[in-house]
């Protein structure tokens, strides 16, 4: 089955990646692509792009950190372990062959899924695709390489906590999602990483690395029929699996009260903070309108938050707001940092800006500026084969509605001040806010505790 999508899908994936406002560009369409599903359940997207003689591959697999269970970091270790060596290639052979060809191959794990990306010359496809197959279907999870990676991961966790900005999002996810799998830190925590074994990786792989529920997108210089035959043959031996029995549901609602989490970093000279709450799912039908409004609030350098906290008051070098959408949930937060002594005015001015956008909304002139910004920021690198391959697998994972995608620019331009006010009231939290602070507790506890029910953690403690 063939589908033709608007170039605006590219914009829908990236907050600051809109289409320039011109009739010629508005008429541009993403090249036709073909979608098919093999008998084993693997979904394949093929898109021909003949301008450059290269091929890009993107893949998503239902094997992210949400499936870690009580072994946080297991999904990440497993994704890395795919390249420790395979049935027919050692780790060094994989690296040497790819380096010789000038090809790239990366495996990774995110919050919800594991992924693979690759790029190589068209003429090298018959040398690279067999490596991709080996990595996905026949990894050996070399124990020696795993122990080296475990040592590095434990050291990285220690270093990360030296800078609050490196770990504040992990604290935030745990604070907001509680015991839900969305709270699982992708990089794990020291107590769990220490106990993960090579057998755990093999077990996680067998359970989660299955074709059904996975998708591969290939974009580049090839013939679709020939490539379909090649990929079908390449993955015909990948056996369909039962999948993980854990079904990821929508997290429980947040408590109906303001809460404060204070993470003590006793040597801190500044306070790093997030203020926000519940967000949106990635396929929310109002996603475009939300991004336009967030541009005004905290999505660009001339946003209200940055003007108030940086330009007008000099309390920080920067302030932003944004949504972190996932498949079944999401969060919204305002993020900034300030000197310890200016913690309270920074909080109060942040809350003042949130109050302003709720009470006054956005006037026509400001809204027009935001629309022009969104419509004028589409970067050309989202038209590359690699970005298009990533686009297709994101479409698969999040299930974007095509009418929403094709109407992106129309949705931007049709947003009115009245509709914006409705969107603000519906999606931008302003009551029972959640506050996360990382700083010197001895100096800021008496300040932050008045904003909600207080709980405390020590940044040196295990986990988040």
Automatic annotation (TrEMBL):
Residues 48-187 form the Peptidase M16 N-terminal domain. Residues 195-372 form the Peptidase M16 C-terminal domain. InterPro entries: Metalloenz_LuxS/M16, MPP/UQCRC_Complex, Pept_M16_N, Peptidase_M16_C. This is Insulinase family protein. It comes from Pedobacter segetis.
């Amino acid at each position: 089955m063939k589908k033709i999508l608007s170039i605006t899908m590219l914009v829908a994936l990236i907050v600051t990646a809109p289409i320039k406002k011109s009739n010629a560009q508005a008429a541009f369409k993403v090249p036709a692509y073909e979608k098919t599903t093999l008998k084993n359940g693997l979904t394949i997207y093929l898109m021909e792009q003949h301008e450059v003689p290269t091929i890009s591959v993107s893949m998503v697999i239902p094997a992210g950190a949400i499936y870690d269970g009580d072994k946080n970091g297991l999904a990440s270790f497993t994704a890395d372990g795919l390249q420790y060596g395979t049935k027919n290639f050692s780790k060094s052979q994989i690296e040497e062959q790819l380096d010789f060809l000038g090809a790239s191959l990366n495996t990774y794990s995110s919050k919800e899924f594991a992924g693979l990306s690759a790029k190589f010359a068209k003429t090298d496809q018959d040398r690279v695709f067999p490596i991709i197959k080996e990595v996905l279907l026949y990894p050996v999870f070399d124990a020696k390489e795993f122990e080296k990676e475990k040592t590095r991961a434990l050291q990285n966790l220690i270093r990360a906590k030296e800078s609050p900005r490196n770990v504040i999002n992990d604290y935030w996810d745990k604070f907001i999602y509680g015991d839900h799998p969305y709270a699982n830190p992708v990089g794990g925590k020291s107590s769990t990483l220490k106990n993960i074994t090579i057998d755990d990786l093999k077990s996680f792989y067998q359970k989660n690395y299955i074709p059904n529920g996975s998708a591969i997108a290939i974009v580049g210089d090839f013939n679709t029929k020939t490539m379909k035959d090649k990929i079908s043959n390449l993955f015909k031996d990948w056996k369909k699996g039962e999948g993980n029995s854990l079904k990821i549901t929508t997290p429980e609602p947040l408590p109906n009260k303001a809460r404060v989490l204070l993470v003590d970093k006793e040597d801190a000279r500044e306070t790093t903070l997030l203020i926000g709450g519940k967000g949106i799912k990635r396929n929310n039908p109002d996603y475009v309108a939300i991004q336009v409004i967030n541009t005004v609030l905290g999505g660009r350098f001339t946003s209200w938050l940055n003007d108030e906290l940086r330009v007008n008051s000099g309390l920080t070098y920067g302030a932003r707001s944004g949504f972190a959408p996932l498949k079944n949930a999401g969060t919204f937060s305002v993020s900034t940092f300030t000197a310890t002594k200016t913690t309270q005015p920074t909080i109060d001015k942040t809350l003042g800006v949130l109050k302003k956008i709720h009470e006054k909304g956005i006037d026509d002139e400001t809204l027009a500026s935001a629309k022009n910004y969104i419509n004028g920021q589409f970067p050309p690198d989202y038209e590359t084969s690699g970005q298009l391959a990533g686009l297709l697998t994101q479409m698969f994972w999040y299930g974007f509605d095509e009418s929403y995608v094709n109407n992106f620019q129309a949705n931007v331009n049709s947003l009115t001040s009245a509709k914006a006010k409705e969107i603000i009231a519906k999606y931008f939290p302003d009551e029972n806010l959640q506050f996360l602070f990382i700083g010197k507790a001895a100096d800021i506890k008496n300040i932050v505790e008045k904003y909600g029910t207080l709980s405390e953690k020590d940044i040196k403690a295990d986990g988040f």
